[in-house]
Structures are given as C-alpha cells and as structure tokens.
Amino acid sequence: KRRELGEILASGGVRDYISRGLGRSYGDAALNQGGGVILHERLNRFVAFDPSNGAVECEAGVTFTDLLEVFVPRGFFPAVTPGTKYLTVGGAIAADVHGKNHHRDGSFASFVDEVRLLTPAGQTLTCSRTQHPEVFWATVGGMGLTGVIMSARLRLAPIETAYLRVDYRRAQDLDEALDAFLSSDAGYRYSVAWIDCLASGKSLGRSVLIRGNPARRADLPERLRRDPLVVHRPPRKKVPFALPPWVLRPASVRAFNNVYYRRHPTREGAVVHYDPFFYPLDSILHWNRIYGNRGFVQYQAAFPPKSSRQGLIRLLERFAATGRASFLAVLKSFGLGNEGLLSFPFPGHTLALDIPYTGADLLRFTDELDRIVLEHGGRVYLAKDACLNAEKCAAMYPNVPRFREIKRQLDPQQRIASSLGRRVGLVERT
C-alpha cells in the first residue's frame, strides 16, 4: 500500500492530492477542486496493542467507532474524542481534534506518540517529539498538508466502565457560566455547556453546563454492573428528507432553546453511557438535513483568557441582534496548547455554532465575526472553517510562515494540496 501510494504521488498524472478520512470536516479540508483525493477506507488495520499501558498502533483509516468497539470491552477509551465517533485516526491527527476534556488533558496530540508520514517524494518518515519533531508538529493540526498519514501510535485511557457520572447546572447568563467553569473545571474530567445563542439582555449567554467524570463500577446501579463495559448501539433515528427553511427560523429555534433549558434543571450524579454523552448527534442519521437543501456553516472561535468574556459577548450580541438561529451552540474551556504549528486550541474559551446557509449575506456575517475574533486575539478552527481567507488565517495563526517553510521542504512541488489549503494560503501556487 505504501509503495502504491508513493507511485501515485510521484506519477504526475493528477495535479495534486489530499487524504480523506470520513469527510466530517465542515468545510473543504478533504476537498480538492481540480486535483485528486486519496481514500483511506482500506488503510484501517490495527497493527499492535499493549494492554499494560493502552498503547495502540493502527493505520490512519481506523475510525473512532473501531476504537470504541474493539477497546471499550477491554477497558480502554480514546483519551480525547470530539463530538462524533465517525472520524478516522488520521483525520484526528490532521485536525488535532479536541474534546470536552481539553481543560485537563489537552488535544489529541497529547496522546499521539508517533506518526508515520509518506511524503510526496515517496519517503516514509517516522515522526515524534524526538524524531523529526518539526515535521511532527507541522503534521499535528496540519490539515493533511505535509503528506499522507499512514499510521500512528497513540495511547488510550483506562476505564472501569463505559459510563460517566454527570452533573447538570443551569447558568442564567454568560458570566455565571464562565464563573462556573473557572470555579469547578478542575473537579471534572469532561466539561461543556450548551448555550442559547438567541438569548439577549440579562439572559445573554444563558447555558446548561454538562460536566462529568468516568464512572467506577461501584458508581453504577446493580443492573448495569453485570456488563459495565458494554458498547451501546442505540436505535438510530433518521431525518428522512431536507427540512423546509421555516423549521429553523428564529422563532422555532427560540422555542426549542426554551424547552431544552427548562428540561435540564440543575442535578447531580446522573449515570450516563458514553455514547449519548460524547456523541449525541451520531444517533440521528442525516441530521444535517435539518438545515435544508442549502446546508449550514459551522463557526468555531477561540479566545484567550484576557479577552474571552468580551469576545464571546460580542459574538453572542451579534447573533441575538441579527436573529440568526444556531440550532447547536457549544461553549468549552481550553487548557494549555501545544507546539503544533496550526493546532487550534490555546488557553481560554471556545464557542462553536451552526449557522444555516443563506447566501452571500452569511459570508458577510462570518466576515464580521472574523473581525471580532481578530480584535480579541482569537482564531477560528480550520477543521470547521469554510469562509476564511489567507490574510486572516495568517493573522490568527502566527506560525503559518514556518508551516509553509516545512511544507516546502517536504513538498517542493506542492503535490499535497486541498481546497482549504489553497484558500487560506497554506499551499503555495506553483
């Protein structure tokens, strides 16, 4: 497989290539207009596993679903997981994904010990923090633009059960939510907040905080102790067709938000299986059809601590003022960042919102949001971006010049490229 991919990259038959995992990036990270796409569906084998420490070596096409089904019954769980299990290990490395535990454990890169990278010249580099470290840190978060990720060695987290003990807390406004994060995040491995982006005035940023820790066997009710490491496959609902635009009008979303807020009163100690806790949308097939035929844009921004409160207020005020309805809005705390040249997280807070696509006016709106983010020292997440330009990307990610230099060394002919890479200036025109 490595030889065949090397021949493809060296053939020159197609202008350039990008790897594609399961295509769950919200923008054009796995698209390559005018070029080729390398599918990793058959590069999905487990190579080795050490049960003494949870170290697993696998090919890049292994999915998080594979990890869960194979290793949860063995008492291990992905140390970092985003909000879907339908992504590949290679994609998780390329996007340096983060989860509900970033404030404690960092991003996915924190648990990746080694990456095998196939360069456009056909060379296989084994990259780590000590071996080709600059290539490693360019590849982690590098959106697949340094080469083809072939395999990786990573560490899983030990678990006693497949459940979590979860606490819910209402916050009446953004200040109360941020104060709750600050005062209690140290006591929770996982912490996130659903946020009502249409609330305004004294209720601006009202939220439901959802925080949890891995449950021990002794925490479970007797009926769950018989099979504490069960991999649930709940019945999956399906959105059968693209819904009409009126479904997500502000009045409809405002009504949904009111119901959601009232249905989640403050309570402690709920025992919740990992599947609905980490992957609530995965239980709904074709959930994107809720946004109709025109789809949506997801906008995720991060702000540093000194300006996160004001930056978040500005974003939420713009949403409330324009009446743009985000069906899904999530607020999280970020902990320490890493050395990844293009890794998204840094200390502070991050807000992710789904915005129904309405045409050119939405692009003008995201441009306005970008300016707010830049004014407050923030950045947007490349794995979810669909609108950013090269100038703003360079302003948000100061290591872009160094990334381009390393890419130039690995790929002087720019044979690895994507629509995203060209749009935000990470791939040089040849």
Structural overview:
By secondary structure, the chain is α+β, with helices and mostly antiparallel strands. It has 14 helices and 18 strands. An eight-stranded antiparallel sheet has the order 13-9-11-10-16-17-15-18. Strands 3, 4, 5, 6, 7 and 8 form a six-stranded antiparallel sheet that branches. Helix 10 (305-322) packs antiparallel against helix 11 (360-375). The protein is globular.
Indicate the topology.
Layout: H1 2-11, E1 17-20, E2 36-39, E3 46-50, E4 55-59, H2 64-71, E5 76-78, H3 89-94, H4 102-105, E6 112-118, E7 124-127, H5 133-139, E8 148-158, E9 163-171, H6 174-184, E10 190-195, E11 207-214, H7 222-225, E12 237-238, H8 250-262, E13 267-273, H9 274-278, E14 284-285, E15 296-303, H10 305-322, E16 329-334, E17 348-356, H11 360-375, E18 379-380, H12 390-396, H13 400-410, H14 419-423
Parallel strand pairs: 1-2, 12-14
Antiparallel strand pairs: 3-4, 4-8, 5-8, 6-7, 6-8, 9-11, 9-13, 10-11, 10-16, 15-17, 15-18, 16-17
Features:
alpha+beta, 430 residues
Summarize it.
The protein is of the alpha+beta class. 29% of the residues lie in helices and 24% in strands. Helix 10 packs antiparallel against helix 11.
